[in-house]
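Why do we bother with holo predictions? Because pocket geometry can differ from the apo form. Keep that in mind while you read this record for 6-diazenyl-5-OXO-L-norleucine.
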Amino acid sequence: MNSETNPSQSHSSPVLDYIRQLHREYSSLKDGKVATYIPELAKANPDLFGICLATTSGSVYEAGDSRQPFTIQSISKPLVYGLALEDHGRAHVLTRVGMEPTGDAFNSISLDPETGRPRNPMINAGAIATAGLVLGKTPQIRLRRVLETLGAYAGSELALDEAVYRSESETGHRNRAIGHMLRNFSMLTEDPNPVVELYFQQCSISVTCRDLGIMAATLANRGVNPVTGKQALRGEYVESVLSVMGSCGMYDYAGEWIYKVGMPAKSGVAGGVIAVLPGQLGIGVFSPPLDPHGNSVRGIRVCDELSRSLDLHLFNLPNPGHSLIRLRFTGAELNSSRVRTPLESQALHQFGSRINVYQLQGHLVFASTEVLVRDVIENLDSTDYLLLDFRRVLSLNESACHLLYSLLIKFSNLKKTLLFIHADRTPLLRRFMKAKLRHECETLFRVFEDHDPALEWCENRLLEVVLPQTVAERRASPSEYELFSGFTAEDLSTVCGLLQRRIYQRGETIINVGEEANHLFFLARGCVSVLVTLSSGVRKRLATFSPGMAFGEMAIIDHAPRSAMVQADTEVECDLLGLKELTQMGQSEPGIKIKLLENLSLGLCRKLRKANREMMVLD
Ligand code: DON
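The structure, written out:
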């Protein structure tokens, strides 16, 4: 009994507890017979029994004899079929092997009467034709490629079980006959013997039940091994491999299997079974005793039980539609971290509803993206700026790309703006837009790395329209400093006497984290941003100030070291007021300090109210 997930973990996971309980439950099932037509397989111990469940997030749960080696046999067929698809593409492979279930046994000589093409790659005839498609100048190179491919699925280096290989090669007359039949119909274009030998070798590769679980999870994870992160099969071919596993993988039991268990699967005559739930998990079971169909008896029962109790049936998936839109808000409800003047805030409150932001999550497939597009279209007349945030998107497919492209063209034709945020998480979308938009891609497919600068960009564009004077070029005089609001000319003259004017270059750090706080800063020209570094190392913008605003003011109250970095976004002119001078002025001119502190408190109230409003939107 072992759980690889976290051996040092003192509490076993409920998943592991369940896998162990299943193992205890089916260990007593003694039905079925060990395969004997390959003499070496007849030596198998019928009591061996292992279960492995591996998830697409890389967790691996094992119970029983999950590390006991045995030969992979027919479970190699879908994996080698994937290799043949990568080597030749679908069109050519389909000229050599079909995709139709036969309803016959695995070793039936089932060829298309006209073409001689085997019906599917899961029966021996189809698997031998597939082995004939594996590229490589020599039989050794072809075998090495098969071993490497299956090793990538398992996440470990695999080797041949020479004894089983020899045993099968010495007794595999029926498969040799099939090989010659295929040569006769030109489904094999060269001497069939080395091809049939390669087929015997692929079937004789030694694996464990743990390997099977991870191989199945690799197929569930669009061809990427969830434990090693290595690509074992190009994503575009996974659907073809899973399709033939779903329709043909369990031979003349395939119909009952897909009806009851509902997952693409493949069994092997040495007692292995794999089952795949796309996007979620893979299951591997090992138990030598077989039923009349040549499938492991315990393997079938365990998969059936897992499917019913964990609700794994493929055709019983939740509706993805309603969960795609995690959050929707407008530029009137939630603003960027660019601190706005009261006039600008009032304008955004009034006109910000023309900016619509959608935070998306999960998988963008046709149904979920249709819900998004329908919602956008219903609000199109009141939208000038649409921001789609992909930060929490897990995957998207081609149909989603089509819908987003059509939406982009619609926005462009209506002279409206559509921005894509965190599109780095959806490389397929970028490739799709590049292919469709060609030279217009740069101008139309506008991508931002984070929603905050994108929202600010839209706010600035909107303010340029609704407010006469744009922000950046504005220069503020001390009388316009927010913290000096309500100061008399005399007050201003007093405090201006204490100010020191400094100029900072674009990108220059004005305040560093942890520094002692000695000054209060008033922004006369340019913009500065307050930045913190997250535990992930990513730098996050907390706020951006523009002329007339103050920063570093919290030190007046708590005299604590600086808690964030302040950087000049443009060339900046600041007036600095020393906290020592402010304290002295407070003794000589307490009225001025009180007014300043009042303005400071008013500013903090405005920020708190804005934060409350935003918390309500984000909840
Ligand atoms: O060709 C054979 O007969 C074996 N190497 C593989 C057959 C097999 O695994 C059938 N699966 N249930």
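Residues 491 and 591 are 9 Å apart (CA to CA).
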